[in-house]
Specification:
40% of the residues lie in helices and 21% in strands. The chain is of the alpha/beta class. The protein has 2 domains: 118 residues, Rossmann fold (3-Layer(aba) Sandwich); 95 residues, Arc Repressor Mutant, subunit A. The strands form 3 sheets. A 5-stranded parallel β-sheet has the order 2-1-3-4-5, with helices on both faces. β4, α4 and β5 form a beta-alpha-beta unit. α2 packs parallel to α3 and α6 packs across α8. The longest helix is centred in the middle third of the chain and has 15 residues.
Length: 223
């Protein structure tokens, strides 16, 4: 999953970002409200972790702006102040969750899982399609009960497709989701990774789940 961390305290931003990356997330980061709007407008994120007190535009104002633009990306607000008024203001502006600093990192991970689960329309950490099962908490994938070893990027792409099963995803959408803004890759990188996934997910089985839609992209569905 692709996350955006918006925090003006650079050391804290770096620590949160690095720990999220170690947990398997693809992370972009920025340091003020104006940058946050630019990133959110340009990218496709599964969730945003954003401090309230920031230079240029506050986290609450950023939230109001993106919600006015009909952007429903899940947003978790961070704040150093544990006041009811702050929490109410953030939730009224459209926040999905709220976390007071300092916080336990395991709690942040749990809250991110809950937010993204709701967005994907699930009530558990598992996505299923036919006999393909993905557990996003354990980061495991099985088919017909057999565990499938995936690279980090293969997992990211399959997770995105599982969250959007039945929906045709363009190569651009997949690339924008699975790589951050620092990536400079080849034009066929998505095709290469889809080929890797097919070898592991589809080739050993009679029922194929990854399908090409000519001129449009790829879709994960039962035949």
């Amino acid at each position: 999953m692709r996350l955006l961390v918006v925090e003006d305290e650079r050391d804290l931003n770096r620590i949160i970002s690095k720990r999220l990356e170690a947990a398997g997330y693809n992370v972009d980061r920025c340091f003020d409200g104006e940058e946050a709007l630019d990133y959110i407008d340009a990218g496709e994120f599964d969730a945003v972790i954003m401090d309230i007190m920031m230079p240029k535009i506050s986290g609450t104002e950023v939230l109001k702006i993106i919600r006015s633009r009909k952007n429903s990306v899940p947003v978790l607000l961070l704040t150093a102040k544990d006041s009811i008024d702050d929490r109410v203001a953030g939730l009224d502006a459209g926040a999905d969750d709220y976390l007071v600093k300092p916080f336990a990192f395991d709690e942040l991970l749990a809250r991110i899982r809950v937010m993204t689960r709701k967005t994907a329309g699930g009530s558990t950490n598992q996505f299923t399609l036919a006999d393909l099962v993905m557990d996003t908490k354990k980061r495991t994938v099985t088919r017909a009960g057999e565990e499938i070893a995936l690279s980090a990027k293969e997992y990211d792409i399959l997770e995105y497709m599982m969250m959007n099963k039945g929906t045709v995803l363009s190569r651009e959408k997949i690339e924008n989701h699975a790589w951050n803004f620092d990536y400079c890759g080849g034009t066929n990188v998505v095709d290469v990774y889809i080929r890797y996934l097919r070898k592991k997910i589809d080739d050993p089985y009679s029922v194929k789940l990854i399908h090409t839609v000519r001129g449009r992209g790829y879709v994960l569905k039962e035949s």
